[in-house]
Amino acid sequence: MASATPSLPEHAQTVATLRLDEEVAGVFACTRKERQISRAGTPYLTVELRDRTGAILARAFRDADVLAGRFERGDIVQVKGRVARFREELQVEIRAISSIDPAEAGDASRFLPTAYRDRDELEGFLEHLAREVYDPALKQLLAALLGDSQLRGEIRKAPCSSPPPSSARAAGGRPPSGHHVYLGGLLEHTVAVATLASELCTLHPRLDRDLLVSAAIVHDLGKTREFTYGAEVQRSAEGRMLGHVELGLRVIAAHAPPALEGERRLALEHCVIVHHGADVASGQRFSSAEALALYRLNALDAQVKGALEHGSPGFAT
Q: Is the dihedral of CA 227, 193, 221, 247 positive or negative?
């Protein structure tokens, strides 16, 4: 298995290690780029530099227009400058900045927020939960899904939500929302919901445990195809146009064994379709106690995690 957190190049500068008056010669993600005008009427650049340890504002007061032509928002950039203090906060005074080939910068997760929990450990929990499913057809489905090495890698990588664009945050746009907004978030959320499902079946033994735990494991699989990764996590074209529920149904269909058919397959797919709630206005209702349970458990983990991350209740996504 891949390590949970890729190592940084030796002696690489990170946002978290920058100190006042330190010379900067590092590689970062550019998640904001604005050309502004000073009171004296001269242009300057405001840039946000980010890696997985945090973000810092940077400004270029000299040769702003020349430097602006050497990179774009969303690029991985090589930066030279010095750490200074502005209005009681640290910022980087830029002397030079230019985009570089992302391949030269190493693993993209170096520049994106990553789960604190060990992903190898989380994968172990996921495998354990899958082994506790005994229905033959559902067990074959989970074995096919977890036996797909490419899909496993995508499950390890994907977040559950993407943050709002830096430009929206800087301009006072929508506040942070969602939950598990970091690499590995999907795996963490899936394990949490499946664990809650298993515990709920102990309290309510009339629930179909195999169906509910399986549905919890597969309910967000579409998120493995919903995002793209670069300087920021962004939604893919199919994520924007189809959404993760439809994408998840397609992932399930591609791995479903012939034995998973008829009402059993419909019951699983129904759980996935309504895991954000039933649309009563259009006549869609929860057709099983398991579907209702998954909806509630998904919302519980999403909202508690959102509250912990953002200080206020989040919404299931």
A: negative
Q: CATH number for the 113-310 domain, one of 1.10.8, 3.40.1350, 3.10.20, 1.10.3210?
A: 1.10.3210
CATH class of segment(s) 16-105 = mainly beta
Least confident of 153-162, 167-176, 234-243, 301-310: 167-176
Alpha carbons 268 and 1: distance in angstroms, whole number: 29
DSSP assigned state of 80: E
Report the pLDDT value the prediction gives residue 13, as an integer from 0 to 100.
87
Quote the pLDDT of residue 177.
58
Phi then psi dihedrals of residue 288, to 5 deg: -155, 155
Token pair belonging to 234? 């962004």
The distance between the two most distant Cα atoms of the chain, rounded to a whole number of Å, is 74
Query: Which helix (H) or strand (E) element contains residue 153?
Result: helix 149-157
Contact call for residues 288 and 275 (beta carbons, < 8 A): no
* CATH 1.10.3210 domain locations along the chain: 113-310
Report which secondary-structure segment, H or E, holds 46.
strand 43-51
Among residues 50, 57, 51, the alpha carbon closest in space to that of 170 is found at: 57
Non-local (6+) Cβ contacts of 118 within 8 A are 4
Q: Kindly state the percentage of the chain with pLDDT values over 70.
A: 89
Name the average pLDDT for the chain.
88
For 147-172, write each residue's pLDDT tens digit.
999 999 999 999 998 766 544 444 44
Q: Is the pTM of this model over 0.85?
A: no
Query: Where, residue-wise, is CATH 2.40.50.140 in the chain?
Result: 16-105
Taken as a whole, the chain contains a residue count of: 317
